[in-house]
């Protein structure tokens, strides 16, 4: 269904504090608006949004999501999963870029977009117009607790929506940004380029092969997680001090932080972690090994586990072999050890190998496909959700892994169509209906 070009115009609210000013007149088809109390618990008032019962841990927190693509939208979606009300602003007539990432369902909608944008009410605005910018400004100053964005530096300032200015007018506001690179470097950030340029590809791939990207946008996802935790910390500080602040995460710094012990191996020892494929540069046997039927993943990380491994396979002789007497020795002689493991596994089906490894206390598991993970694995079933859409359809969702004992969390509403709740939100702005 095509989106309407929805805008609202007029003079900006000049709220000097967290309290909304009296009603103002907006020059548009929507004459009067006041979005203080009538906008509380917004999502419960909009169609196709299920409130959590009892309320989620972030119930009452209001998030204005001005972002697109992956990292920042993922953070906003995560806050919604925890119970926050989230309004996503998209460009009228275009929308988030991920709406155009295939493959698509039979109605032309993108599951890629769904993955990062459930739990949100959607409004489409023309932010090149004064009217559209005034709607955003009022939502930020009179409704939102948190504003999330990932525009190129200076864009919001040119629109009169600079985050510093918004916080100056509303000191309780928490603002949050995702950038490609640290402050002062306005280059756009792309997950693939950051995996290459911030070290991850250099340690990923086969020893004699090329650097390889991880199969999912892990830089974006980590940055989204970091932004979520930063926002939560800022809200906690606001509960103490009454003041908001700005939280910024760059994709580059998120990627560098992910280097973890590999990064410290270089900083402390000058050691570049080599590419080892599915292996491990610190322990063994540790790899994906073929069996008579299907491959299995084996993670033998200690001498105790290696002892059990050898005994269960009837190869106690390996315990006396100096090539395999310690983790470092086994890593140094990985090819020799791998050849022995492959030979031992070759006559056994995967199920038998896994049974032996379980008996030995060695971490191991099958290499599952997505159909096997989502259709056959019992542990996955509680994470699978089906969310109703406004057209009577359904949208699948994969829940986030939080489990709270007292305040439930989970997917609450399907990702919106472009501008799906524009009329409802603008109506609430107009007449203050509850």
From TrEMBL:
The keyword Cell cycle does not apply. Keywords: Transferase. Coiled coil: none annotated. Pfam families: CoA_transf_3. InterPro entries: CoA-transferase_III_domain, CoA-Trfase_fam_III, CoA-Trfase_III_dom3_sf, CoA-Trfase_III_dom_1_sf. GO terms for molecular function: CoA-transferase activity. This is CoA transferase. It comes from the Bacteria. Residues 8-19 have a biased composition (Low complexity). Residues 1-26 are annotated as: Disordered. The keyword Signal does not apply. It comes from Nocardioides marmotae.
